[in-house]
Amino acid sequence: MKKQTAIPTTTYNYLEDLIQNNNREWFNEHKGRYVDAKEDFKEFVSQLFNEMSKVDNVAEFKIFRIYRDVRFSKNKEPYKKCFSGYIT
Hints:
Blueprint: H1 9-20, H2 24-29, H3 31-53, E1 61-63, E2 85-87
Antiparallel strand pairs: 1-2
């Protein structure tokens, strides 16, 4: 595992592009960028989790899906504009 201290700029660039093009066609055309960005975020959170486990009792981390549930929302954009998750 490579040592990473921050989320790479390419991940932020992907999210900025997603904000401008929040539709299924664009997302599917750039699926490879999404996979890379999600992996970068997952690696960052994994390293954060490992550092936190040195000083605290942490059990697990989860990364949320990027797909939004639009069934009952006025905002019908299909994708979230960020990566997110939690550490317990």
